[in-house]
Amino acid sequence: MSSLLDEKAMDQLQSQQSELLDKIDELRAIGVGGLVELPQIVVCGSQSSGKSSVLEAISRVRFPTKSNLCTRFATEFVLRRASEIRIKVSIDPGDSRSDVEEQQKLQAFSSEERDMSPETFSSSAKFKTLIDRARECMGLSSVNSEFSDDVLKIEISGPEQPELTLVDLPGLYYSTSSEQSAEGKALVERLTERYMKRSRSIILAVISAKNDYHNQNILNIAQRFDPNYERVLGIVTQPDTAEAGSEQEETYLQFIQNKKVKLQLGWHVLRNRSFEKRNISDDARDAQEKSFFENGKWASLSRNQVGIEALRTRLSKILLRHISRNLPGLIMDIQERILRNEKALRKLGDPRATVQDQRQFLVGISSRFARIINQALNGSYTDDFFGGFKEGIANTDEFYFRRLRAVIRELNEHFAEAMSIGGCRRMIVFDGLQVPGVDIELERSKPYMHDWTPKYVLQSTLEEEIKEQALKSRGIELPGSANPLLVGSLFRDQCEPWETIAESHVLNAWESVQYFVQLVLKYLTDDHTRPLLFRHLIGPELEKMKDSLFEKLSELVSYSKSGHPLPVGETFLSKVLKSRTNRQVAMLKRNLGLTGLFFGDNNQKSFSASDLERAASQLQSSSDQFATAEIIDQMQAYYETAIITFIDNVTILAIENRLLCTLEHIFTSRTVVGMDDHQIEEIAAEPLSIQAERKRLNEELNKLRKAKRTLNAFSVDEQSLRSPPTLAQTIHRGLTHTSAPKPEDVRPAVASSASGVKSNKQAASFSHGGSAEKFQQRPSIGLFGQPTTGTPLNLFGPPQTRNDSHRNGSQFGGNGTSSQNGQVSGSSSSPLGSSIHSTPTKNQNHHFDAAKLPTTFGPALG
Questions:
Q1: What PROSITE patterns does the entry give (predicted)?
Q2: pLDDT, averaged across the chain
């Protein structure tokens, strides 16, 4: 009598070419299956489609079933090779198990049933009892119609077993009732999709010939995750329920012939036990199936498509091909996981049980921290932290803010632009001239200009204001002149916006530095050490830098608030003369009835001597006893000089000296050496969770490295001789498939130089068995062995005209456009339009949300 665990059936499942399957077995044996996806067979379909019977026929493991009780959870049968036959049962809690006590209860079931004798498993009654206990542990019962996303795992070990995973999923259903809820329906669908979406799973899509295939949606679900049906094998069950010669029988025959729904793996048909003969032996079941397919239209089908014996062999071959095709991707997944674990271990550092170990740990972090800071300030972005060209193209927020010097320079440039446009409180306009048009929305979209509104004042209006102030401020000055303090008073009024703009700028610079430091710590340290290091050491230092920065800014602004202009050199005098000339020219033109600021703006006109005398007399009579126009000229001349000095002072004395230069010294090896033991332990002491995490990562890493060696050895042995190098193969074929050249065919090809002059010295090509022109039409080989077409790669010529999206419009803008000649035009925008005091400004092309920039170390950094 066939035993419950039929070794013969397992032998049929194992192909002669089993080496590749053995490699996957080794990976499962060392536990890699829990780290990366490994191949498995998933049996899925609608309720009562015969799924469990298919799995039972493949494995010869009899599942305890009831006619009125369908599968309520996923059951994974893991067949493993071992020296002794034994069984291991466990439950993996589902994603819906958020309660810790429930998770522990399920895990306890796993530990209680860890060691079972073969005798226990051989008794189907005891096996049924075991399944019932698992169902109860999951909160299911025979009267309960709910489903669970918990997974029952049954591992069968034996000396002849292949490494294979067979998964039986709950049956799909499409209508709800008192016994089948909508929640259960959704849960079964999610469970089925979770297994189907694993790219290394072979899907056995089971449909029953007893039901209309339109009502069985399993193929549509499979197509969502495998659009081309590359890893779907269709299984038709219960063919004996279709009457001979009926339309239903013909329909399912067309399915099996791959005419209805074309699957790349094809179709197969099985006749399983009927309800009446559910207790017959496995051998009797196979004999009845073989007899059925030898009669009627079923006899016309290929023997490779019918019966369980053919399915075992077919499934083995399909699985082998599937594994072979996925082998490169599997190796890549393992390598990526290795790199991820190695990076995580580097962040955790070596075990640090003593204070000396902890101090050495911080010294290592501080050394790399100081090196990255130095490179960021010097603009030499060579460390891996800064990323490469590929990351630059991605244009992410993190990549942008990592390059600190570039960020600060851009902020400085926008600060200078904002000062030049919005630095003066009122813009002076000569009488008779039109107020210049300004696109207010465009200007407000620029950094530091979000609330800017242009204000204008006529020269004559300002002179009247000065006269009134001069009258109230008379001292011992001579008639025809005003109190010299009026120049300083007018200057302070004009430079009133300087402080607000400068405060916004230095705050943005400081927050950019703070965010940059957080990115460096995120790169260098683990999630436990990072907040401690920031909170106890680096954060307070940054706050001190901020206080020092604003202290220097207050010092720089104080003179513009209370000091008196003290110009030095001849520049001031030349600017006064220029301002006076412009004013007098404007007045003279107005008196002569001309428009435009300069005489050249109009066509030539003739004036009489009396007109000129009258205009000159009006110009002279416009003078007043307080020389108000001269006060305005002097103020403007000094303003133009002082604003440049102020911009330079803010960028150099404040940002460079108080912020960036200090940044280099906030966390160095000298800092760590100067810390006492208590401070070291407070930051670098290793909690139990870190120790457990390091142990887990090391164990995973050992498994992954062993898996990589296992697969690499097979990859080299089996694939290297089958795949010659592409470039060498191309050259070989080019030489062997062309005839030897005739002497008259060997001649230089004429090439054109960049200037259009033809020269056979500049380029000479030779053809083999044809003309030079014909040879030149062959595709050339690119830098990496790829054929090139079209325009050759220009390695040393001038750069092509391009639109630099990082500098379109305003340098922080986002609406700029580029013309064909590469010139930038259009408007710009900035996230600082909403708040210039909250976050570092950056180019809108980086899609940076200013509101998301963290001001403290927290979850925003992941």
A1: G_DYNAMIN_2, GED
A2: 73
